[in-house]
Amino acid sequence: MNDVSSGLSARPLRVMALCLGNICRSPVAEALLRRELAAAGVEATVVSAGTGDWHVGRPADPRSQTVAAAHGLELGGRARQLGPADFSGQDVILAMDANNAEDARRLAPPGAQARILLMRDFDPQGRGEDVPDPYYGGARGFEDMYEMLERSARAFAQAARAGTAGT
User: Fold this and answer.
1) Can you list the alpha helix ranges (DSSP code H) found in the chain?
2) Catalytic, out of 61, 97, 121, 133
3) pLDDT per residue over 54-71, tens digit each?
4) CA distance 128 to 150
5) CB 66 within 8 A of CB 142
6) Are 94 and 29 in contact (CB under 8 A)?
């Protein structure tokens, strides 16, 4: 078990959702993590980013916005790219898939403090699996993505409340 609050003082837990372009999976994960952490009574700041720069400055993909809205979430913000400061500015980086996690580990500067985990390390129905990128698929892929992210965010929030994260 990993302690997601080790080294934290009285400040909020700092969490980042990370995917490839920051327009499909990570904006939805950001909104869900924010909601679930608040519901669990965990003080946290939540952001999202992508490992690539293709969509920097753009809003979330309309299909992500649609699936989020159907579940009562609004996606704000604009896509941004993961940067060196994120590795000291975040406590936990939750990558959407193994490639995103590997890219983050490769980009991490020496002495990086953020723990890099998979989002689905917390999914009781797919622990350690990837959240498939729905970008090139249809609406069903976005709904499946939402369901995986919701389960994972809820379980992460419970682990954060308990001060541990099982992997």
Assistant:
1) 25-39, 62-70, 86-89, 98-107, 139-162
2) 133
3) 999 999 999 999 999 999
4) 15
5) yes
6) yes
Handedness of CA 115, 120, 121, 124 (dihedral sign): positive
What DSSP designation does 4 have?
T
d(CA 10, CA 31): 23
CB of 55 within 8 A of CB of 23? yes
61 is known as an active-site residue: no
Which tens digit of pLDDT belongs to each residue from 15-53? 999 999 999 999 999 999 999 999 999 999 999 999 999
In sequence order, the β-bridge partners of residue 47 are 16
Q: What global pTM score does this model have?
A: 0.93
For this structure, is 24 an active site residue?
A: no
One of 14, 19, 97, 103 is an active-site residue; which one?
A: 19
- Which residue is catalytic, options 14, 24, 25, 91? 25
Going by pLDDT thresholds of 50, 70 and 90, the confidence category of residue 167 is very low
